[in-house]
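Ticket #4471: structure output looks truncated?

Reporter: J.K.
Steps to reproduce: submitted the chain below (415 residues) through the standard prediction queue, then opened the result file.
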Amino acid sequence: MFYQRLYTSKYLATVSAAAVSAATISALAANSSANTSANSSSRTATVNPFIGRFAMCDNIDNGRPVEEGLTTKKMYFYRAPVANQVSLTDRNVLLTLPHSRTLGKDVAKLLDLPNGGVSVGKYKDGETSVKVDASVRGKDVFVLSSTVSNDSIIETLLTISTLRRASAKSICCIIPYYGYGRMDMKRKREPIAAADIARMFESMGVDSVILMDIHNDSVSGFFNLEIPVDNLETGPVAAAFFNEQLEGSDNVVIVAPHEGQVGRASDFRKRFSQLSQREVPMVFVSKTRLKPGEKTPTQELIGDVKGKTCVIVDDIVDTGKTLAGNVKLLKEKGASNVYAFATHGLFTGEGGGKGLGEISDLEGLEYLLVTNTVYHEKKELGGKIKQLSVAPLIAEAIARAVAKRSISGILNVED
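Returned output as attached by the reporter:
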């Protein structure tokens, strides 16, 4: 029973991110090159050497459950075991695409499941090349891919199409970050892109979808009724992390960065209060729309934070302008310490926003906690940016899907 072996203790050491070694990179590149030469196409594609090339690990590296990101010290959201290793390896295949490569390695390690091979590259004319190396006939396939760019969307769609044509029994697409998720409603003559992307996945033949902290719950309704959609929330995991980090502090207050995040921050507050066994208050920042001649929106804090330890809760950090404004406002209102959590760290820094470097040095911020739903090189993160691994959450979801158990039940806190 796979979880019995992996999680015999309820306590895990806090770990830091680890990069793939140069020797491993060379070996993977050589392996990928060999596979590329076997491609029957008359064109030659440049292959990404990291995709789907991670072998099954025989141990947990001296108690470290993941290689990328932090984990909580205590196991809050895992149940012993809901599926056995034989059923996993015989009937299931895990495939990881480029933008979730390190996350996929950790998921495969936690499940003790081989990570099947997918070769993805580009032809000289810019078209995408996809080849599934693993046998998938009659198997239940889990595809792990964050659709953070147009290229990643095309890669995922073509992979699903390939699996359907290769006679896979079922295809579950796990999308840690759902691209175009913020375009979820009609605005004048603009597309509802979140719905259009869902239609593309349907057309390619996906059977089920697992998302993580989608921007708007309405996105799950954009898929056909025949395609079940589960949304894994990372807020409870982050609440557990901050509860451990801020243990002993009795002046914590949860902050919603704007009106649209009040619901998310409220859920975070409830879980934090449950874990800390004390009622934690919440405040929110109200932003007024820009008036003619104004360059920045007016912000008003609803609630008291003087002398408090604040935890800002959001779903996405993109340009970082909202985060910077929140931190400045909270410090001006007398907050003693300011922390922040966002599930998806994009860090584009476009349109006058703040990139990774500026956020890492943001004055008044203790640190920003993001998850590894969006891949960043280890060297890019640092300073005041910490990364929380969602690999155990995804691994548990896969195990429960295989065992036909409730996925939403993962986030019930153990007493």
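Triage note (M.O.): checked the attachment and the full token line is present. The radius of gyration is 22 Å.
Status: closed, working as intended.
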